Amino acid sequence: xxxxxxxxxxxxxxxxxxxxxxxxxxxxxxxxxxxxxxxxxxxxxxxxxxxxxxxxxxxxxxxxxxxxxxxxxxxxxxxxxxxxxxxxxxxxxxxxxxxxxxxxxxxxxxxxxxxxxxxxxxxxxxxxxxxxxxxxxxxxxxxxxxxxxxxxxxxxxxxxxxxxxxxxxxxxxxxxxxxxxxxxxxxxxxxxxxxxxxxxxxxxxxxxxxxxxxxxxxxxxxxxxxxxxxxxxxxxxxxxxxxxxxxxxxxxxxxxxxxxxxxxxxxxxxxxxxxxxxxxxxxxxxxxxx
Amino acid sequence: xxxxxxxxxxxxxxxxxxxxxxxxxxxxxxxxxxxxxxxxxxxxxxxxxxxxxxxxxxxxxxxxxxxxxxxxxxxxxxxxxxxxxxxxxxxxxxxxxxxxxxxxxxxxxxxxxxxxxxxxxxxxxxxxxxxxxxxxxxxxxxxxxxxxxxxxxxxxxxxxxxxxxxxxxxxxxxxxxxxxxxxxxxxxxxxxxxxxxxxxxxxxxxxxxxxxxxxxxxxxxxxxxxxxxxxxxxxxxxxxxxxxxxxxxxxxxxxxxxxxxxxxxxxxxxxxxxxxxxxxxxxxxxxxxxxxxxxx
Lengths: 290, 296
Known about the structure:
The structure holds two protein chains of two kinds. Chain A is mainly α. Chain A has helices at residues 2-39, 58-65, 81-112, 118-130, 133-146, 153-177, 181-189, 194-205, 207-223, 226-231, 239-244, 254-289; strands spanning 69-70, 73-74.
């Protein structure tokens, strides 16, 4: 009798668990589904809330080729989207690689060496991450205006570093901490210098972590909105700002909006899926090990 | 030669740190210093140069600007509701998932990571689609179920606007808190729990006196990350409501943004952002203090 009750209890627990999970997963994915569906609808279908419609790829075509019309509806703001997408790619690749290069030696030093001021450095980095973006944006905006740098990709790269760099230091610290010191020490016993051990032992072992950090940096820069909104005009505009400009005063280009949204999101998803395990590890390991 | 090598060794960590630190110093600390200076100035657009006027901005801000206090209230409400919603949802989920040895961990992680990595602008837009009173899914479903008779303009009325924004924020960031807490729960040592079980502790007692104290560092990290992000939320509010209707979702960050870049009161905006910065600092100091009290 007792065993029977316990089995029932376990089964009920399982049912509850999977229901909660299913709801949670649906909650996470539903908005994506809605966007995907709308990106396939022609301008006249968007307004009908039906589950059955004729899917078209017109929105994707307009956004990717920079056409300014979908069917009979004309959306002039869509015209330059491919160029802005290119801007986004250039800026985020530059930011991601430069901050990774700067973060690597620093996080190595922070994990492997003991030196005075180390703890205050950690706190300092954490506080930089917490700064209101406007506190940095406004003075740099003034500076960029004086240097004639507004509306250039360079200015975006510089200002994105202010929050990509601290986060990549934070992540890299976690990854380097995961590598046992013993491996480096044995390499040094075999005649490697400390720097040699870094290049021959730490770098290869940290490769997945480095890839995860690089991709995380890419995503951060790719997703940024406020800085790009203020600092760019027609020349260096990035994809998120361009998407935002699909909302006119008179109407909103819903179909193009959704397809442009999908286009900006899909590369991220494909980048993240292979390294998700390491990404989660990097985001949490800094926190777990402290 | 050996002596020189020793010297080099001693300075090596500083040399390794210096490139990143110098960059950070140049692009964060110096600008913040300039922001502080500007907040004590008056900045008319002609001449494009700040003129020192002492505490004038802060006097107006603290004693004559009701909008500032209104925005402060909005920010704190956003913080308290949003943070506790996200934290307790994530904690509940993490406890449920951690208790069972789940086979779908990989899929769960893939799905859960999605809201965190999607471009915030797109998230704002997609929720705007869902909240839309004419063709939005939320109203459609609620009407279909029969909970409401007429479509509700979720983002367009003062009573629901802030809550709608908070729900989107919760959607986006609960997974992050969940991941942090799950990682923390996985790294818990087993022995204390076995000992407690032998001594006949109840589930609640084990949670209260073992799990929570072990998790406190990671909880602090989660709160600091999320808290500072909520203080600094811009994209979501800008896309969803632009601070409206009226000023019902105008957080301090938005208010500062409008003063700086829309109404061109540069120095006044600077003083708003300085107060936001102080608020974030106080928030962080408060939670760090709580942590230290418990640790010692």
